[in-house]
Amino acid sequence: MDLILLGFQTLASPMVLMMLLLGVFAGMVVGSIPGINDNIAFAVFIPFSFSMPPEQALALMVGVYCAAATGGAIPAIVIKVPGTASSLLTAEDGNAMARKGLAGRALSIAITSSVVGGVLSSIVLLLFAPSLAKVALKFGYVENFALAILGLSSVVGLLRGNIIKGAIAALIGLLVATIGFSPMTGAARYTFDSVNLIEGIPFVPLLVGLFGIAAMLDLKAELLKSRAENAAPDALPTIGSLKLPRGLVRRLAPVWGASAAIGNMIGMLPGAGMLMAIFLAYNQAAGRFRRLFAGKPGEPEWGEGAPEGIAAPEAANNAVTASSMVPLLSLGIPGNSTSALFIGALALHGMVPGPLLFTQHGNIAWMIIVAFLAANIVLWPVAWVVLRTVSQYVFSIRKEAMVGVIALLCLMGAYSDGGNLFNMWVAVGAGLVAYVMRLANIPLGPAILGLVLGPQLETSLHNSLTISQGNWGVFFDVAEHPISAGMMFASALLWILPALLGLRERGRAKKEDQQT
Fold first, then answer.
1. Residue 369 and residue 349: Cα distance in Å, rounded?
2. Span 330-360, pLDDT tens digits
3. Closest Cα partner for 77 from 59, 101, 44?
4. What would the pLDDT profile of 249-292 be if each residue is shown by its tens digit?
5. pLDDT digit string (tens) for 386-428?
6. CA distance linking residue 106 with residue 129, whole number of Å
7. Rounded distance between C-alpha atoms, residue 116 and residue 516, angstroms
8. Other C-beta atoms within 10 Å of 194: how many?
9. Domain boundaries, given as residue ranges, for the chain
10. In this protein, which residues make up the domain named DUF112 (predicted)?
11. Cα 5 from chain centroid?
């Protein structure tokens, strides 16, 4: 308890608090710009922190990290262009709700979910960091492979009647992930002798194209349809009321708790990251929605404005932020790419993450931990300020002009990731592919998950089979690798249960036909 109080005492300095507040505000603003993800935002602010005292610099970094994912929900809901990768699922139900005149409610759900997930994760980090670090140590190559399989299997619960197309989309994502140098042999694969593809398809421009450019094409198609029918195009959604009804809060409370738990578990595992967490949380929320609310009067279809579809990914992505610091601060192992940048921030000030950080720089280590809690609390009022600012400028733009604005933001975001014109062509090409996939009713989510998990899947599989001398049974070895065996069993269930449920529904329908 004395150490926790030491952390609060260090954070209580006016300049440290001001840097934390500045980081939260900057993270929200940067996160709301399509294409500028949390990695870029974090990397941009590291040089500014060099001349600051370490406690001020790291408070700034914590604020940016916590707020960037939340800011990405704003354009995802309003114009269906995710500001960050972690808000890609929010765009589906969030934008659908906004189109029904409930943009304010959708944004309020997103922000509240982010704050709840972040606060719960910060409390877990504050109280259980040493214990949770021991769990992270149990994950080796075998467990990471099983975790990737579980992540890919989680999309099955989202697809239901579209499993074949979803599996095809996931395979496409996995194949695209193989472009570039092989992590095992170093050989170039599918680069077509282009130096721009040596390191693979750049992820940020790809994501900008799949969502941003595709959304721009959707909007342009809508405008052309309205012009052909001599009808005025629908106006951009206005924010409206940000108040959440008490009944909705009670309804979403279990979703927040479950999604925050998923985010905590995934966040502390090296390499898992936010995307796996939001897909697992989204899948869990989808099952709960279909079980309790689907088909009831006034309830939308899943993916068409369900509040759980916004609450689950937003609670999960912010829960990842604090929990990803568990292995980093305790063991020196980053939980994801953004938390890995914390190593650089600490190194700039002569500190090395790991057990010695708590003995040599105890006040800084505990200040970082309590700063996550403070940042997520401060996030609430800052988000309202940013929202009202956005409403004055973004929502006043006509749809005709918004097509150009979206295209400009997307191309700028793609170009900013490395300053390469090739990235802009990647964004345009990915946007065209995503638009065709939507016309063909092929889900995009499995393809994104395949892209993200592909490298982890390949590396973990190769290393696991090398260690086990080619024994595939190592993934199901209950004695030596119980965690892997459990996750592989859960993955099998995710594939089997939809088929069993489909058979039961067909049997029930046949029985009802016979009775009539």
1. 17
2. 666 665 666 666 766 777 777 767 666 777 7
3. 101
4. 899 999 999 999 998 888 777 655 677 788 888 888 888 888 88
5. 877 765 565 566 667 777 777 887 787 778 767 788 888 988 9
6. 33
7. 50
8. 11
9. 2-515
10. 17-449
11. 32
Measured CA to CA, the distance from residue 187 to residue 106 in angstroms comes to 46
| Ramachandran category for residue 305: left, alpha or beta (phi over 0 → left; psi -120 to 50 → alpha) | left
H/E segment holding residue 188: strand 188-189
The label of the residue with tokens 């992540």 reads: 151
Structure tokens at 36: 């500028």
> What share of the chain in percent tops pLDDT 70?
79
- pTM for the predicted model, two decimal places: 0.69
For the record, the structure tokens of 425 come out as: 């062509």
Q: Which token pair is 447?
A: 């393809």
CA–CA dist 92, 304 (Å, integer): 7
- Which segments of 89-171 are extended strands (E)? none
Three-state secondary structure string covering 48-59: HHCCCCHHHHHH
**433, two tokens:** 């592919």
List pLDDT tens digits, range 146-202: 878 887 776 655 555 567 777 788 888 888 888 888 877 778 888 888 888 888 888
| C-alpha distance from residue 384 to each of 111, 389, 390 (Å) | 9, 9, 10
- Contact yes or no for 328/339 (Cβ under 8 A): yes
User: How far is residue 30's CA from residue 241's CA, in Å, rounded to a whole number?
Assistant: 24
Please check the confidence at residue 61 and state whether its pLDDT lies above 90.
Answer: no
Is the Cβ–Cβ distance between 339 and 140 less than 8 Å?
no
Q: CA 273 to CA 421: how far, in whole Å?
A: 28
Q: Which of 303, 410, 368 is nearest to 126 (CA)?
A: 368
Q: Up-side HSE of residue 443: CA atoms within 13 Å toward CB?
A: 24
